[in-house]
Amino acid sequence: MSRIVYVNGEFLPEDQAKVSVFDRGFLMADGVYEVTTVIDGKLVDFDGHAARLVRSLGELDMDAPHSRDEWLAIHRELMHRNDLENGLIYLQVTRGATDRDFTWPEGLEQTVVLFTQAKNVTESPAAKRGISVISVPDQRWRRRDIKTVQLLYPSMAKMAAVRAGADDAWLVEDGFVTEGTSNNAYIVKGGRIVTRDLSHDILHGITRAAVLRYAREAQMEVVERPFTIEEAQAADEAFITSASSFVTPVVKIDGTTVGLGGPGPVAKRLREIYIDESRKAAV
Ligand code: PMP
To answer: How many CB atoms lie under 10 A from the CB of residue 204?
Structure first.
């Protein structure tokens, strides 16, 4: 399968796309990214991702290389050129290429890359059976609210989970769960949804914001505070959210079954609401 990818203003076959070996994204992880889901040829929560991108760039003293409308046009053109009906669009902006140094010259020309990944996002076997997670220490840097491309630690944590026979890892700091390797973490106890409050400790998930809004609209109680692994193991339900996994139940934590050991009613309902509402609001 040869995709058409976007690199710095051009749409090219993936084997002809090039980025400099001196790119600071490659040498220093000096870049940010977004992943936007495509359902039935439309973008889910595009404005949320576009706004977070601007914020991530700003926190790293980078300008936004494109306006919201330009980003939308690039996303649409890429979908069109790849006949992408369902899947993901990955977008990365790095500070650009310059001779390797810890400091950088001001005003570098940024590197912009986008590519598609075809995937049946709404029909997920993991969502049907629920996933298992293990806990690992959160050893990431302390600005997890910025969506940087430094994904080595989360990759190692997820790899450790898979090697241990689990699906993913929940990261734990000072005794409390921060989030999953690439998702936000939740528990449900007595009908109340609990998820960590927003701070520099976690990524401000676009899916999190939407799911909490829908939950409140459906009169579900939401409490934003940290929780421990022990509290999660004793909960009625647990789940994760992200743009690519929507709402996915967690049925085992460090080998302990959560609730009845299968997807629970709250996670199932939120997944349905989220997919329905996302379809309606997609652009
Ligand atoms: N936390 C982390 C660490 C993530 O990598 C992601 C996914 N990018 C999320 C949470 C979920 O964010 P979103 O709902 O915007 O995909």
So the answer is: 18
